[in-house]
């Protein structure tokens, strides 16, 4: 494949991030195929046309079906609200398109499985937008773990906490409605840290027990603020997990965690050292090595730099910083190079996306039934 | 009571901290009774005599029974290894002495209950050495919560992690032996953060489910390093808990958490704000208030100072710092003033100590049986 | 002007950053003119052609003179080594081109003055690449100061420290040679923090006294490592300054400051509060307001977000992070919109660049003559 | 000397800290002489009697002359307001007493010199209360430097900033009156960081140039708030210094630095590494070593522990924290052991105190005359 021709569906929050990443990707990275921004869909032709101009796409349409069936589109990039992922992905797959979907892959594991199996059967490549693992800093954490620098991982603690619904007066939005969002903070936020835990520990999660709570049980109706509506899914959740190799883990998530703006974090304890990270300081990693001189032990703050994965493509000096969209740019690089090379595999793909959905559903079930639930 | 005459049993690690606190208490605080360091017991008369001189005690003995029955002792201070707490406390209570015991109160909840009930029946006062809640900074956290500054508490995350057994070559010591220590890191470390969670949330823990692991399953025999011995209790544990009012909580503990030297920490999320603290920076508290101007929101780092509880007695300038032994000095002040005033209640007392033991046992049981366990 | 047609000269470290910023600018921001990447010059036609392809420029040349005289170029972007800034800028100005030059504007104030005056006389617009002031976080600091939130500024402490020459075995490079670099760390690094101090304090620096040192007096000859060459300019420097309104300031800079990867930082003390910042955590600002409740005073860590200047164009969620190149993208936005609007002024322009050069020269002179030197 | 019998004069802020330190010293440390709290003076016999009881002193008096001439006093501990240091010290010396004086030694270098020379001539030992250098953490910094771990020191940046006079409505107090305080923030605060710079760099300061400002020029008269009085000395000051070996240094001090509660800090850059410290986190030191693997470089946060100087006497576990008074306790240990051993030298003594006064005066002079001033 000499060109990767993209069809983008959806241009909201995350669609716009994709667009920024597409714009800079070929300047930042030496891509193995030419990236062509071919077709863009939005809910009206007018909005689609405007966004196509803004994002540099060749053509636009008010009908996403046009994109998934277009002969000049190689990969369909799904940035729509979550509840549409399944339908669009299946249509794209049916047309033999590769699919790049935002997370969560689907509203539940059942749907995710259908999507994963359809893609597998069709032989198309898939990628799910778990962009935080593309951050050079988290790639560095992965490298440190893989090289055995902290020994064998014995504990993973991870969070994805935000406070976008902390205010009880914030009206009900689609995140709070099962039909639109499926799970609450588990699907919206925890999907990231759970997937990241598997990436970093290098093991799948095999059993879980969760606890969760809808703290703010009603919110104002956005169409009539004097009326209250029920919040249909969880505001916060915790899960204890075990990875396939027996490693213990704890996952916490909340959308009402006052003060957390990008509270994705992890502390990974190994037999020889510990790594600590928070996404709010996305260009630094804390590393402790227990074999250091006991009188000089301590957590070291490593500023991400050109000696760490992918960073040098953004800047050749350490500590100069990377931003949110830069992670997405690494993801686009992976997409393009993965499609350019017939034998390459994209990661994290729909199989991983399905696994994450399965874990999320198991956490919800385990919380409801107050028991450990095995995965798969 | 015009005098509080102390009989100290045990002068190791924590006994020495008590001694330092006794030494400075009457200079730091205006005590409501005269503190008299009367009698000290150690395992030999010689060691006892030496320590009595070093710590400023009037008399000494190689037999702790002398102390618990001495007519000139008002309160028996138990700083022995954990497995002796019960026997000494019961003997002291039988002699009508008030008892000040280090934590954990006993090796299991059953023993703790016997001790608590004996003290209650005898009408003596009791105090357990959960000194971290006496830190002015944590008292400030309590004050902030009680005043409603962060709203209703909806989540408590707490840890007590250390790394004193992180090295697998460290020989087996008494912490690893059930008969001497009872539980592992749960009893040694988690006791603190669990008690602190009840103190800060202002609610008892009512149900728990734990998970735990003995990561390093064997250690060298301290008497013959070429032989390996089994480690008999857990190296790390996690528990999800629910407080009486339904508030969710997560507790984590480890004695093999590389890099944690005093890893007692908490993050307390409320409906209106969040508090964050780590004992490794024991004189600062992070506070977030969600009602701040959205463009000026953020966690504020408050340096403990004279406007916060008890601090001014150590220093009248903010940010000048307090140390580990200063917490113990506050505890001694509570002890002396609580004994000086007939109607005063000491806190945390044996009842609280028993409650903590009951929670610890429930966590261990829940981990073993892989199910939620209700408390009490 | 409906289009801004750029001629880029130089594609090294900073030229590449410009290219990334050009690539994403029109997606990130609603630009007021179309940005056209027209012409690119490098030292050979081959390299120029390769870079033009990589950076998306229409045409290329091995001769920078072609760019400055090309009728289809509106603005010449100078990313060459410092010693070429003057010649290229003057040639561009002579051809009536607007000029966007990297810092430092020139090797000394005399040259900078010639450049500034030439541009003024020719009526072309100019911009100097002091990109760190374009960071939304530093713009937020400016906003806080301008609104009087920290009262009147009474002290500015700023640093720009790095460690790229900390190792004495690093061979001599052009930074160490007067003819190529002019000043040492003052010109290379301090230029940024001095310009930033004027931006943030809102006052020009009016008198200075500096001290400086070439700590590593000789370095290996890069062409023959067995030979040593003299380092011709300063490794570290400090200056005390006074702003026009009498406000005190201190500037420190070093290129051998072990551990500083992007050690641009400032602490700005006002009569009512204090701001603290380090570029190594470029998306957070610390703010202290003295009128807070004395028992709740402390530095607040503000994560930059959509309520702060320019951030929302990168991401609509707070705390998600911005990177080095994002600053440059804001600079490009300023360039394009400033050129699109005939009456707009670019900032910081050659006049500001000249002022900074004049201050740098005064610091060097004051250090040599060991006396205060007045500016202008 | 088998006993060290102390005569304490003054029981305000710092006198109380001495008392706390005296109380715990013999429990914390194995002292080489018995510490006897013999005599205490305050401004009235009543206050003296009350404080003697509170602090555990044997006798008391309302007349400090009684203390300096008492045959049962070995060392006179001066905790009075600064302007009395000279008179009391000279009287004590005249009576052959050793003298332990709080800083600053005197209101100016001339007085300090008289005191130093009198002590030298009389052959008595002296100690000045620069207690921050007794902190185990700063002792660790000294150890790291002395062992060459950061190579040769090439730059010292130090601050002592507080905000106790930041509010312009705070009435004039003795700190602002030349006759009572001498210098302003230089004498009150900078004395500490300047002395610490000499201790840590291991070199005397040899030349200085300062700048300073009385930012709040008038304050309410404390006796009639409707009247304003002139502030007679500086609110903030900066100095560039050179140590005897040529090492550059910068000192900053302020008593109006909003947000700084205990803003004593240092950053010490060496040819092989860097140390960074702030007294507000008095139990942690940041250390960077440039020879670390470049991909794993970073500042390490070392928590002070039993492997570092003096810490183990307070607690045998790392990271458990030390407080302000613990520093003073180390100072008392140095006093007692230094007096117990006839050949021992106390440090920092009146000679060092005089040197610091001389540096402070030189900074003030250099600021006034706007020129570098050599020391000694």
Automatic annotation (TrEMBL), chains A, B, C, D:
<dbReference type="InterPro" id="IPR055170">
    <property type="entry name" value="GFO_IDH_MocA-like_dom"/>
</dbReference>
<dbReference type="Pfam" id="PF22725">
    <property type="entry name" value="GFO_IDH_MocA_C3"/>
</dbReference>
<dbReference type="InterPro" id="IPR050463">
    <property type="entry name" value="Gfo/Idh/MocA_oxidrdct_glycsds"/>
</dbReference>
<dbReference type="Pfam" id="PF01408">
    <property type="entry name" value="GFO_IDH_MocA"/>
</dbReference>
<dbReference type="InterPro" id="IPR036291">
    <property type="entry name" value="NAD(P)-bd_dom_sf"/>
</dbReference>
<protein>
    <submittedName>
        <fullName>Glucose--fructose oxidoreductase</fullName>
        <ecNumber>1.1.99.28</ecNumber>
    </submittedName>
</protein>
<dbReference type="GO" id="GO:0000166">
    <property type="term" value="F:nucleotide binding"/>
</dbReference>
<keyword id="KW-0560">Oxidoreductase</keyword>
<feature type="domain" description="Gfo/Idh/MocA-like oxidoreductase N-terminal">
    <location>
        <begin position="4"/>
        <end position="130"/>
    </location>
</feature>
<feature type="domain" description="GFO/IDH/MocA-like oxidoreductase">
    <location>
        <begin position="139"/>
        <end position="275"/>
    </location>
</feature>
<dbReference type="InterPro" id="IPR000683">
    <property type="entry name" value="Gfo/Idh/MocA-like_OxRdtase_N"/>
</dbReference>
<dbReference type="GO" id="GO:0047061">
    <property type="term" value="F:glucose-fructose oxidoreductase activity"/>
</dbReference>
